[in-house]
Task: inverse folding
């Protein structure tokens, strides 16, 4: 009996068997569609969504509609972004159980679609395109609108080299998130208000509910605060306030300390005065003290200095080492991708004290030519700095410490601390409290992007249970071809077009000759 | 199994003994090569990335036309010349004939794809190519070729005329190739989901970017098997009458 002998033997059997096979195929396809099994063969597992993104996609309850406004015939690097964006939407759709639908619209198609894109908040970019050997500029769109129930979020412009997975995950999280995690800014000791940190607040408020914390001495730090922010206090905290902060950390609360140790006044001739807040008591016990010094660094910002020269007022730009441009960053999600942060009047941290049950990661360090001073009487920008003023290297100015901590009030008999040691938690400390402050009114100034980024990264890292942090640096991978001469290029082009064809012809010719000689042989044998 | 292999070998040999075969192969390679390397505003050097995505995009279309040209004669010619009846006297079943013919056509497509290996070697020497994604791309090409071959064999089983088989194969193929995809955007949500799943371009694009999914592989293998069964039914019908 041969295999398949009884298969489709007559019409009736045949119909049943065919229906059965088609039915089985349909069932298998439905099952496979439900079972999300994917093998990502790309080298860097580019399309493997992180568990955080998978979770976000799985949480999508009702359909999200994405309208992607992407221009067509873009330069290759932007076309790549478009393809990648589509790929990631596909990946999110796979994990959303079909609850994410997208469509691509070309806003350059007609005026109506272009107006629609602009109305939705998509920002045009000016790009150079090559048409008939001429370079012309044209408006290009690379944005998307996400709609969920009655909410809408816009991605105004996708930049090349940004992490598309992060951008998409963030927007979906914003859309479906029931309540935003709370972060609390300590107030009442001369700290800057939310209005004085516009750049930071714009970013933070996207994902967090930002609240002011007053009277922590009587109320304590509410336990629903995900991250406690202590930014730039100028006055002394009372013992009960310090205790409230300490007990919050002991209960596993996370905190960011951005502390000024010195108040420098350039207007008064460059004299600095130490600031006492009482927070040293906490940071000393947590093994990450901010030192009472000021960093000066060769890598620094320029400021304008007025001087008199032959009776005239002259304004000069001079490098001012007490406003360092910090160039070295640790290999940590908080500081990854950060290139330079401006820290005005920053103090260094002592990073040598961490216990064995604590892990310390330095996030930012000075350049290799820096030093510190404990004398704050001469900070004048007009003084001459010499090489001898910069004898130290890579001094730490920001760090993260993770692990368990002992209470600052554990051995204090006068104050009753409920918790004397903490559950595992994390603290980020910056030796400066001004680097994210924009100020208000006439004094308002823009801070560099990276200043805000490292600060937001720290909050994200501490608050982010979903682990989206790691995605921020997962950028579109570009794999450029090597630069070769036009001659080699032409040679390779024709080689690749013609070689396969010649191989086919060669093989045909070989077969023909073999067959011919075989025939010849038969003929001869026949004779 | 040996019957299937015998039929397959015979077909592959017969293919390489005919001049038409070489013309089809050369046209496939010339069109694929031209658009991959010389196409102008979309060729590999213009895109400037060490990836064969340009080729995979073009091969999706060239294979769509190339495969029916290979499969059109497979069963139609046997029917026309009456050799199908002769085959029926041998101890082989119609199902084995169908699989043998399919395997031969599929192997021929795979051999044609092997002629594009120089593309891979060139690009890998010019930049940091993603080998995994390229492998997945070729896997996608081989899988999709299996589907179109199966469709082609089915079309060829239905008629005695090769040209009719070619047109029929393109007609059925165009639904999977593009029409389901287009209809997905106009149909109501439930039906659009099904249409999208049936769109081969959707599965192909997932595979060529380097992601092998169970649903894509199951769907394509199912289409191949259903093609076998329908082709066999089509052959059997002459005996059922």
Result:
């Amino acid at each position: 009996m041969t295999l398949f002998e009884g298969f489709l033997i007559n019409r009736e059997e045949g119909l049943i068997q065919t229906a059965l096979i088609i039915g089985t195929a349909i069932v298998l396809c439905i099952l496979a569609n439900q079972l999300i099994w994917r093998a990502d063969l790309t080298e860097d597992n580019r399309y493997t969504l992180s568990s955080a993104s998978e979770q976000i996609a799985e949480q999508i309850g009702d359909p999200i509609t994405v309208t992607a406004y992407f221009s067509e015939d873009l330069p290759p690097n932007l076309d790549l972004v478009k393809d990648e964006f589509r790929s990631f939407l596909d990946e999110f759709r796979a994990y959303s159980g079909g609850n994410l639908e997208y469509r691509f619209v070309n806003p350059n198609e007609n005026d109506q679609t272009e107006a629609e894109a602009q109305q939705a908040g998509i920002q045009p970019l000016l790009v150079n395109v090559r048409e008939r050997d001429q370079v012309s500029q044209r408006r290009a769109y690379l944005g998307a609108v996400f709609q969920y129930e009655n909410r809408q979020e816009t991605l105004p412009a996708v930049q090349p080299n940004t992490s598309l997975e992060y951008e998409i995950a963030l927007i979906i999280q914003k859309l479906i998130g029931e309540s935003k995690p709370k972060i609390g800014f300590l107030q009442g000791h001369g700290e800057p208000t939310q209005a004085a940190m516009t750049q930071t607040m714009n970013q933070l408020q996207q994902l967090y509910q930002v609240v002011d914390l007053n009277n922590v001495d009587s109320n304590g730090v509410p336990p629903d605060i995900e991250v406690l922010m202590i930014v730039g206090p100028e006055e002394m905290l009372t013992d009960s306030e310090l205790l409230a902060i300490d007990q919050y950390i002991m209960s596993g609360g996370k905190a960011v300390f951005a502390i000024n140790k010195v108040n420098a006044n350039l207007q008064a001739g460059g004299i600095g005065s130490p600031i006492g807040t009482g927070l040293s008591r906490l940071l000393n016990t947590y093994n990450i003290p901010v030192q009472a010094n000021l960093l000066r660094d060769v890598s620094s910002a320029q400021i304008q200095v007025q001087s008199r020269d032959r009776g005239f007022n002259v304004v000069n730009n001079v490098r001012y080492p007490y406003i360092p441009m910090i160039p070295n960053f640790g290999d940590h999600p908080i500081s990854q991708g950060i290139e330079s942060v401006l820290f005005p009047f920053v103090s260094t941290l002592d990073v040598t004290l961490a216990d064995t049950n604590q892990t310390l990661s330095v996030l930012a360090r000075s350049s290799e030519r820096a030093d510190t001073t404990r004398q704050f009487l001469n900070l004048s920008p007009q003084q001459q700095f010499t090489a001898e003023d910069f004898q130290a290297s890579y001094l730490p100015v920001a760090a993260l410490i993770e692990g368990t901590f002992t209470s600052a009030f554990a051995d204090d008999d006068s104050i009753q601390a409920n918790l004397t040691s903490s559950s595992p938690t994390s603290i980020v400390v910056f030796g400066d409290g001004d680097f994210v402050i924009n100020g208000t009114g006439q004094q308002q100034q823009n801070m560099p992007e990276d200043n805000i980024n490292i600060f937001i990264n720290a909050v994200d890292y501490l608050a982010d249970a979903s682990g989206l942090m790691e995605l921020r640096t997962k950028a579109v991978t570009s794999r450029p071809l090597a630069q070769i001469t036009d001659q080699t290029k032409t040679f390779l082009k024709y080689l690749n077009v013609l070689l396969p064809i010649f191989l086919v012809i060669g093989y045909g010719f070989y077969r023909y000759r073999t067959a011919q000689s075989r025939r010849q042989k038969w003929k001869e044998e026949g004779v | 199994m040996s019957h299937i292999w015998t039929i397959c070998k015979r077909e592959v040999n017969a293919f390489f003994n005919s001049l038409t075969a070489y013309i089809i192969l050369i046209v496939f390679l010339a069109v694929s090569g031209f658009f991959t390397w010389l196409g102008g505003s979309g060729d590999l050097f213009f895109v400037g990335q060490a990836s064969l995505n340009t080729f995979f995009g073009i091969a999706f279309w060239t294979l769509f036309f190339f495969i029916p040209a290979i499969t059109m004669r497979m069963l139609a010619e046997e029917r026309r010349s009456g050799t199908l009846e002769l085959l029926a006297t041998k101890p082989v079943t119609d199902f084995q004939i169908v699989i043998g013919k399919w395997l031969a056509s599929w192997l021929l497509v795979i051999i044609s794809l092997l002629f594009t290996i120089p593309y891979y070697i060139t690009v890998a020497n010019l930049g940091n190519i993603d080998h995994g994604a390229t492998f997945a791309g070729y896997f996608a090409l081989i899988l999709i070729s299996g589907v179109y071959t199966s469709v082609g064999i089915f079309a060829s089983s239905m008629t005695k005329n090769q040209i009719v088989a070619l047109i029929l194969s393109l007609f059925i193929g165009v639904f999977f190739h593009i029409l389901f995809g287009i209809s997905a955007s106009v149909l109501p949500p439930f039906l659009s989901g099904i249409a999208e799943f049936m769109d081969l371009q959707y599965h192909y694009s997932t595979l060529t970017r380097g992601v092998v999914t169970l649903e894509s592989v199951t769907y394509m293998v199912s289409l191949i098997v259903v093609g076998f069964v329908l082709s066999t039914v089509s052959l059997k019908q002459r005996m059922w009458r």
